[in-house]
Each structure stands twice: as C-alpha cells, then as structure tokens.
C-alpha cells in the first residue's frame, strides 16, 4: 500500500440522529485496505436520498457521514488497486460493487448484494467495519463512501479516472445524478430514437434524465413538475413540452400533447402518488420506470387489469451497472453530450453542508446542488 501521512484524521459533517443538526467533527480515518482507494474529496453532490436519511424516512445507522456523489484526487491506494494511483483525478459511482457476489459475477453489479447488505443496511465497507470513527473509538457509519468529509475511502470498483478537460469539481454529479439517469434511460427503459418520454419530477436526477433522453434520440420529452422554474430549466436541457401538475391534470395534458400516453414514463421523485401517475401516463405497451427512492412504507396501487390488458411494463431502476454506465457517462461528458454547467444550479462550500440540505428540503435548489469541499485541488 502507498504510504499516507500521519495522523490519519479527517474533518467531516456527522449526522448524530433524529432532530440533530449536522455537526463538524474531526474523525479518525483508517488507511485503505486491499482493493480500496483513499481520496481527497473535491466535491460532493446534494442528493435527495441523503435528505431522506436526514429526515428519518429511510433507516440507516448513526452517527454517520452521508454524501454519496463525489469527485476527488487519489491520495493512496490499497493492495490490488492498479487502475488509479496517487494524484489521479477520479469520480466515484454511488453503487460500490464488491465484484464477487452472484450478481457481480454475472455482470449485474447494480444489484451487488454485498453493497446493499454491508453498506446500505449497516454503513460499513466489505470487511464489516467503517473506515471512520470518533476519537473514543465509536464507529461512524458510511453512506456509500461518506462524502461529506475532506477524505473518503472507496472500494476500487467504484472509482473511475476523469478525462482531461472534464472539470473535476463538477464531475461529482456524474456519480449519482447522471449515473442513475443513464442507468434508467439506457439500461432499463432502453429509450429508442423517435420515442416519446415523460419525466415526473424535474429535480437533479429528473433533469439529468430529460437531458439524456434527448441525447438518446427521443422525439418528444415532456417534463412534469409543480415548479415553473424547474420546468423552464427542463426546457433548457431538452424538454420539448412541460406540464405544471398544480394547474393541469397531467394525464389529460399529456394526451392532449401527444394524442396518447408516452412510450416511456420515468418517475424520479419517490412517492406512491407519482409512481401511480407513471403507470397512468404510459401508452399501451409502454414502460413505466420507477427511479425515485420513496420513504419507508409507501406502496404502489395500480389498476391491475389496465396493466395486464394494455401490456404496460413496470420497471425498477437504481443506478446503472458501474463497470459499464460510468465509462459511458464519462465519454458523454468528454464529448460534450452532457451540459454540467446547466445541470448544476446551486453551489455550496464545505461550511454550508447543512444549509445545502435545508435548501433542498425547501425546494430552493433549481437543478443539482453541489458542495465544493476542496475546489483548489481540482
């Protein structure tokens, strides 16, 4: 393993439990183990999934360091890492595949059992321990790599080198927002040229889906939201039409625009009402793709006969396959097919992590928010 400097500590924003504000702390940071990468975090995206955790809508152990959409500079690598080295500019996928479970072995690393069991349920990496702890030795859980910190340890299969010419700070949003969108558009929905696509919720992920749907050749892309500012940004990013669902019935409006339902409908919020709406908006033989993570206990209530008779497919998506989707996203941004400058609408400093999530909760972030932790390293 490449040597790192002593003492091994890092500054992080720690979530200590329900009703508590994020608190800056100095934490102990373990060195990267085999097949792990230690990086200096340059930036971390502001994602609604972290907000779900902060609001206790998704169960996760605490104390914890959240933040799962990061870019950075490699500081050190563990044994068995040969694709990146110290000084390399990298971005990380929020799904961190183990490479060895039954799903990873058949190329479906988006379903990695070890990631979901060890990290998403327990907040650890794959030896069953966190790389973060308080001074007294109390473990601090990691949500993915724990990106609300100045350093992070990441399993190697989630680490990808950023091409020259791609801004490293802005590249952070590729690891969840664009990664999730690309997985939904290309891998699950398989959007084809000439098709119609409707996207419910024009937030950070939804806007990325709109952007990529147009890049995939969709002829009509309809954005549905309750916020006119977000809908205006959706048009800038490729939406051909918009519907404000507070002023018009989205089903009637979509049929008025297209003459029928959409070939593909993507739900990017995560609620029972919008998931049902996705099915209702789908055309005969269409695909309703559910991408939004919902609070615990929300279930889908649909007209079963309609789904059966009209051959509507209901598909779930949670990110893409890291080994395929991240290189694809990086190629697209390198070739100018992704407009990161327009997607990232709100920027915060490392001091403003708490404010970033308050702004997200209050719907004050128009597109994707970004916490610039150490932009001077980019």
From TrEMBL:
Keywords: Metal-binding, Oxidoreductase, Zinc. The keyword Transmembrane does not apply. Its cofactor is Zn(2+). InterPro entries: ADH-like_C, ADH-like_N, ADH_Zn_CS, ER, GroES-like_sf, NAD(P)-bd_dom_sf. It comes from the Bacteria. The keyword rRNA processing does not apply. Residues 19-371 form the Enoyl reductase (ER) domain. Belongs to the zinc-containing alcohol dehydrogenase family. This is Zinc-binding dehydrogenase. It comes from Nesterenkonia halobia.
């Amino acid at each position: 393993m490449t040597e790192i400097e002593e003492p091994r500590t890092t500054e992080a924003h720690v979530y200590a439990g329900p009703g508590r504000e994020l608190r800056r702390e100095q934490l102990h940071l373990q060195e990267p183990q085999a097949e792990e990468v230690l990086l200096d975090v340059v930036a971390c995206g502001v994602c609604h999934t972290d907000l779900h955790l902060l609001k206790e809508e998704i169960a996760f152990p605490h104390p914890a360091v959240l933040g799962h959409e990061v870019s950075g500079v490699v500081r050190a690598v563990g044994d068995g890492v040969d694709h990146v080295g110290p000084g390399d500019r990298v971005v990380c996928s929020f799904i961190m595949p183990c490479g060895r479970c039954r799903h990873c072995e058949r190329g479906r690393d988006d379903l990695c059992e070890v990631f979901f069991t060890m990290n998403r349920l327990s907040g650890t990496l794959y030896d069953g321990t966190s790389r973060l702890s308080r001074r007294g030795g109390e473990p601090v859980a990691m949500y993915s790599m724990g990106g609300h910190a100045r350093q992070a340890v990441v399993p190697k299969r989630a680490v990808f080198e950023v091409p020259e010419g791609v801004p490293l700070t802005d590249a952070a949003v590729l690891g969840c927002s664009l990664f999730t969108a690309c997985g939904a558009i290309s891998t699950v929905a398989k959007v084809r040229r000439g098709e119609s696509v409707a996207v419910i919720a024009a937030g950070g992920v939804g806007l990325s889906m709109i952007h990529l749907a147009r890049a995939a050749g969709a002829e009509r892309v309809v954005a549905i939201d309750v916020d006119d500012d977000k809908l205006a940004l959706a048009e800038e990013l490729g939406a051909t039409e918009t519907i404000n669902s507070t002023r018009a019935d989205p089903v009637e409006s979509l049929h008025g625009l297209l003459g029928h339902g959409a070939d593909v409908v993507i739900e990017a919020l995560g609620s029972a009402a919008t998931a049902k709406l996705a099915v209702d908006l789908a055309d005969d033989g269409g695909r309703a793709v559910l991408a939004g993570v919902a609070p615990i206990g929300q279930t889908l209530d649909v007209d079963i006969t309609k789904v059966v008779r009209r051959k509507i497919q209901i598909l779930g998506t949670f990110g893409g396959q890291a080994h395929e989707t991240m290189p694809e996203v990086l190629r697209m941004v390198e070739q100018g097919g992704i407009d990161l400058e327009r997607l990232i609408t709100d920027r915060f400093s490392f001091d403003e992590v708490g404010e970033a999530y308050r702004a997200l909760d209050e719907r004050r972030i128009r597109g994707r928010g970004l916490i610039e932790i150490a932009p001077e390293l980019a």
